[in-house]
Amino acid sequence: MVRYKFKTAKTKYTFVSSFFFAIVIWGVLVLIEPSKYMNLQSLTTVLMLNGSDYWFIKAYLGLYFLSPILNVFVEKVDQKYYRDILILLYIFQTIYGWFSIDGAAWIAGGYSAFSFICLYLIGRYIKKYGDTINVGRYFRICSFSKGNLLLLFLSIVFLLTFLAYTVTYLGIPIEGRLFTYTNPLVILESIVLVLLFSKIKFKSSIINRIAFSCLAIYLLHGNELILRPYYGKWIAQWYSCETTTNFVMRTLFLIFVVFIMAISLDQIRLVLSKIIFSKSKCV
Question: What is the pLDDT of residue 283?
Fold first, then answer.
């Protein structure tokens, strides 16, 4: 019998990081506007009890807890059956999670554990059978060079941008759907990016340190207490009132500030985590 053990360090890291940022953000907002944020509704956001609160964390944890079952499936089935299941999953998701965005509300446009499971399975399939996946008659997917993968990625970006511009110009209100995580082109785009970065080899302690804190960037800017009330409001105001140059410069500066703040806060979290968990081991 095959047995899998959860890597509790990953789960602990995800939970600790999420609650650290949620509590810090809530605490700062309470200090700034206590009458607005010292209430039960704000506390439910800290605990991620609302549907939009840190959706990525909840979807990731759903995938993580199911991953042992998925790994058994990947190891036990043959390639043909695996491929057929993937095709059926993506047909189902495309019809009920993209063509009909509310056809299966729990798919949530890709913001769900179901979509993460689909991505995980297709990633495992490429890793396991990539050398046998043909694109057309002559090319295998893993034989694409970095240049070809980059060209393919940019082509998809251009196509999505062109389609969004076209439907907007024609007054067809579906431009947002083109960029949902259930769009087959967006999924293909993510696969190409994974393949591209898998072919890039470099070492940098600074980049590794920053990469370790990438989740922190999402946890800071994606918090529902500040995402729309602050970031969204500022950017919308700049878009309406500023010139194109000023809008771009202000937005880029905001992105840079959020990036620096997130990485810096995560370094503090890392120090506190080492102190707290090292002490708990000694008790």
Answer: 44
Mean pLDDT lowest among 15-19, 29-33, 132-136, 270-274: 132-136
Tell me if 179 sits within 8 A of 160, measured CB to CB: yes
Angle, helix 8-32 to helix 244-282, in steps of 10 degrees: 120
Which residues are bridge partners to 135 per DSSP?
A: 139
| Alpha-carbon torsion, ordered 9, 12, 13, 14, to 10 deg | 130
Residue 279 corresponds to which amino acid? Answer: K
Q: Which long-range contacts (CB under 8 A, 24 or more apart) does 80-86 make?
A: 82/121, 82/125, 82/129, 83/125, 85/121, 86/118, 86/121, 86/122, 86/125
Distance between CA atoms of residues 243 and 111, nearest Å: 33
82, 124 contact by CB (below 8 A): no
Residue 3, pLDDT > 70, answer no
Give the confidence band of 140 by pLDDT, cuts at 50, 70, 90: low
Q: Kindly report the pTM of this predicted structure.
A: 0.84
- Angstrom distances, CA of residue 25 to CA of 20, 105, 114: 9, 30, 29
d(CA 26, CA 225): 8
C-alpha torsion 4→6→10→12, nearest 10: 180
Contact indicator for 188, 144 with CB cutoff of 8 Å? no
Distance CA 53, CA 26 (A): 13
Q: What CA–CA distance (Å, rounded) separates 97 from 91?
A: 10
- 81: which residues sit within 8 A by CB, 6+ positions away? none
- The sign of the dihedral angle between the CA atoms of 14, 124, 177, 108 is negative
